[in-house]
Amino acid sequence: MVFSKSKMIAALTAITLSICASAAFTDSACLKSSFDTTVSHKSFPLGFADTTINVKKDGCVITILHKKMKYMKKKWVIDVCRGPIHIKYGTGSIDVFKRLGNCKGSMASDYCSNLSTIELLLQDDGLIFADGDKGNLDQDHGKIYCSYMLALSYLNKGLVFNREQEYSNVLIRGMYKSEAAVPTGSPLLALPRSRKTVDTQTIEAGSQSSTPDSSGDF
């Protein structure tokens, strides 16, 4: 009986460790993943119309297609490994909006407007309604969450990623603070503590970035 109980405890421990391992993806796993996921919900007016957000990720390239009712379609393409930092927008002809600086404060531009819209739609129509665990890349919530963190790290923070590099603690979650976060195995390069945001510089992810802050986390 004792032997049997020990085997049961060992099996339960193994299952628990397996679940924990699959429940939290790494920054590198997020960057290198590829998937195609769609989240839908009923919306105004009267709950009859479908609002749908489709996120297709092919390595570094994230494509976001948002549909509200039948004819309201918006599409963005974001390549988080390509500089200069920019957003491609449009379902037919393509507009390109390049990052000119930090979007906080009085900064107003087409780039900042599109960044704000992308963040809002990924939150309100993606993260809130997606099924599954946000830490599992095999589930819709995890796929949307991975795309959300990558998009914000690139567009809001100014991080240009390298698909061949390994990353740890680079992706931002919600609001962020300027601290140190570098690729696995790289020397620690901390930002000056007086520097609270990334301004007009594009930072190569892996040389300087920031640690995640759980505030605003989904």
For the sheet with most strands, the description reads: 6 strands, antiparallel
Tell me the series of helices and strands, N- to C-terminal: HHEEEEEEHHEEEE
Taken as a percent bin, the fraction of beta residues is: 15-25%
Low-confidence stretches: 14-23, 175-203, 207-215
Oligomeric state of the chains present here: single chain
Overall radius of gyration: 19 Å
Summarize the helices and strands and which ones pair or pack.
Layout: H1 2-23, H2 27-32, E1 34-43, E2 49-58, E3 61-68, E4 72-79, E5 86-89, E6 95-98, H3 110-127, H4 140-155, E7 159-160, E8 176-177, E9 203-204, E10 211-212
Parallel strand pairs: 7-9
Antiparallel strand pairs: 1-2, 2-3, 3-4, 4-5, 5-6, 8-10
